[in-house]
Amino acid sequence: MLCRKNSTREKGGSIPVYLNVYDLTPYNSYAYWLGLGVYHSGVQVHGIEYAFGAHEYPSTGIFEGEPKQCEGFTFRKSILIGWTGKSSKEVRKVMEELSKVYKGNAYNLITKNCNHFCNDACIRLTGNSIPSWVNRLARIGFLCNCIVPVSLNTTKVGHGKMEDKGAGEGEKKKLRNRSNRPASSSNSSSSSSSSPPLALASPSS
Question: 117 with 84: CB under 8 angstroms?
Fold first, then answer.
């Protein structure tokens, strides 16, 4: 599988933005070479990996963790998507804005999964989209939803105690690392964890 050709440094950007791709199934060893497969992904910038997973609450499903270390998934490769001029604080603001759209209870394998989140985040940070093969299965599933088992439609992220601040107020607050590990559904990974997602929490000065 070829890497992106558009990895040159953009004008004004000096911070690299990577897409870290993980296998959800051992069958990816074969499917990858056909441009298919089931993948989890996260966006790495300023030494932090941001990703999206599901839980049953109407709060953010975006969480952060150590790059290339997402438990329950097998790391495959890191792809340089582009460069950004945003500071770590500005990147966090982008994630806060995306958190209004990427709620844990809105996760859907076909229409709003971790790869959709990563694509949106990469476009906002670099102007470049992620490689099409990373989320190809979701697009195929959208055209023919019957080929995707219902049990694969959610990738659960365990939900710990989160501050119940209400929709409008909570979404304005900063992201805090309450968790750094998503957990996949039983059909996606057999060794998943059940840590809570990155929560919207009170800002720290």
Answer: no
What is the 8-class DSSP label of residue 135?
G
Q: What H or E segment, with its residue span, contains residue 199?
A: strand 199-200
Please determine, for residue 196, whether its predicted confidence score (pLDDT) is greater than 70: no
Catalytic site residue 144? no
Exactly one of 40, 55, 116, 159 is catalytic; name it: 40
Selecting among 70, 114, 118, 122, the annotated active-site residue is: 114
The phi, psi pair for 87, rounded to 5°, reads -75, 170
Sign (positive or negative) of CA dihedral 175, 176, 178, 180: positive
Q: Does residue 77 carry a pLDDT above 70?
A: yes
For the ranges 42-46, 173-177, 183-187, the lowest mean pLDDT is seen at: 183-187
Residue located via tokens 């190809």: 136
Which residue bears the tokens 């000065």?
205
Determine whether 40 is an active site residue: yes
Within a 10 A sphere around the Cβ of 56, how many other Cβ atoms?
12
